[in-house]
Every structure is written in structure tokens, then in C-alpha cells.
UniProtKB/TrEMBL annotation:
Residue ranges, annotated region (Disordered): 209-231
SUPFAM superfamilies, per the entry: Acyl-CoA N-acyltransferases (Nat)
Name of the molecule in the record: N-acetyltransferase domain-containing protein
Ranges where the N-acetyltransferase domain occurs: 52-200
Species the sequence originates in: Noctiluca scintillans (Sea sparkle)
Domain of life: Eukaryota
Length: 231
């Protein structure tokens, strides 16, 4: 019998090439879809709320939310992250835009979690918040919805981490009552290859009992952009 070594290596190369082609094809489709969404949103007057509805994360939405994360966040989340989120759907919201009859696009998502044992009790921790259609209030609607439900369940405080250079996101959180608690040097060190330095984060906290008045909104939240938090 002849050696099967060369054929095995050839099969491996074919498999690797197929995987690379599949990934490239997926990325191209995501870019095309994102461009269509951007153009559709651009056709609306700036500041106009999108005709979206919010729902809790469900199994049929996980793949779309995962694609959204992969396309817009410099942190990769495994299946365990989404399984945990499905276990606490009241701490999640997904923004769905029905642009055409019979179709829908996931244009934003927020995923939060409860306190760990070594953290302050009854505190909502925002893990991810992002939208693919900025300047239309999607991020604010997502986070406000989760905060409202958390408060109805007795969770009066909320914390999150945001990159120190993400000024639009910082402004958005400020407008919703978050304030800077501390700076976390090197917080995003594990994502060094995907982010521009510095890799530091701001830890921001919101206390529902001390939300500022309408006269104290801080910087203008010009754009909804992604927030990252490492659980």
C-alpha cells in the first residue's frame, strides 16, 4: 500500500483553505449588510429614532447578536457568554429593525449580569452595549430599558467599563446618570492586538437614587458606540 501522508496533508490544506474562504465570505456578507443598514439609516434625518422594537435575548437571536459583536467589538466572546446571557434574559435587550416586510436586522444589543459574590450586591453590571446604527438613539433605548427593569427588581446601582478614548460612549453614559468612579490601567490588555492604546478603561457607576437633574447631563452624547466590559 502507498503512503497516505501526502494525501492527508493535501486534505488538511484544502480544509484550511475552505475555512479561510468561508470566514472571508462571512466577513464580506457582514460588511455588505452593515453598508445597507448604514445607507438606510442615513436616509433618515439625523437624530430620528429608528422604527425598532426591543426584545429580550433568545436562542433565535444569539447568532445575529454574536455577528454584531464580532463586527463591531474588539473582544471575542465564546458560547459560554451567550449561554449565561440566555439564563438571565431580563438583563438583556436586542434592538430589531424591520426594514422590509418579512425580514429583520439586529442593529443593537445590551447584555448585563448580576453581581458576583465578591462584588456589591444588587448591582447591574453592563458587559456589552453596542449598535451598528449610531446617532439614532438605539444605545440609549437599549440601556434605559434594562436599567428600568433592573430598578423594578430592586437593583438600584449599575456599573460598566468603557475605553478611555471612547468619548461618544462616555458622553452617552454620562447623560444616563453614570459617573466616573476610577480609571483601570491596562484593563483591555488581553485585546491589545485589536485596540489602539492606551488600553485603559474608566469604571463608571450609576446610582438610581442620585441620578442628576436634567440640567446636569455632562457632555453631549453625539453618537451611540460600543462599550466593553470584561466579566
Amino acid at each position: 500500500f502507498g503512503s497516505s501522508g501526502p494525501s492527508i496533508q493535501a486534505n488538511r490544506r484544502c480544509t484550511q483553505n475552505w475555512v479561510v474562504c468561508a470566514m472571508v465570505g462571512c466577513q464580506q456578507r457582514q460588511r455588505k449588510r452593515a453598508e445597507k443598514l448604514r445607507l438606510a439609516a442615513a436616509a433618515l434625518p439625523e437624530g430620528t429614532p429608528l422604527p425598532i422594537h426591543l426584545s429580550r435575548l433568545s436562542k433565535d437571536l444569539v447568532s445575529a447578536v454574536a455577528r454584531l459583536h464580532e463586527a463591531h467589538l474588539p473582544v471575542r466572546y465564546g458560547q459560554e457568554f451567550y449561554d449565561n446571557a440566555l439564563g438571565s434574559p431580563h438583563m438583556t435587550r436586542v434592538a430589531v429593525w424591520h426594514r422590509e416586510p418579512g425580514t429583520f436586522d439586529v442593529v443593537g444589543a445590551v447584555i448585563c449580569r448580576d453581581s458576583h459574590l465578591d462584588e456589591e450586591a444588587n448591582c447591574l453590571h453592563v458587559q456589552t452595549l453596542m449598535t451598528s446604527v449610531p446617532r439614532h438613539g438605539v444605545g440609549a433605548r437599549l440601556l434605559s430599558a434594562v436599567l428600568a427593569e433592573a430598578e423594578s427588581r430592586g437593583m438600584r446601582k449599575s456599573r460598566l467599563h468603557v475605553h478611555v478614548l471612547n468619548e461618544p460612549a462616555i458622553a452617552l453614559y454620562w447623560s444616563l446618570g453614570y459617573r466616573v468612579e476610577a480609571e483601570r490601567p491596562g484593563y483591555y490588555a488581553l485585546s491589545a492586538s485589536l485596540m489602539r492604546p492606551p488600553l485603559d478603561a474608566l469604571r463608571m457607576c450609576r446610582d438610581a437614587d442620585a441620578v442628576p437633574s436634567s440640567q446636569d447631563h455632562g457632555p453631549n452624547p453625539e453618537e451611540d458606540t460600543s462599550s466593553l466590559s470584561r466579566s
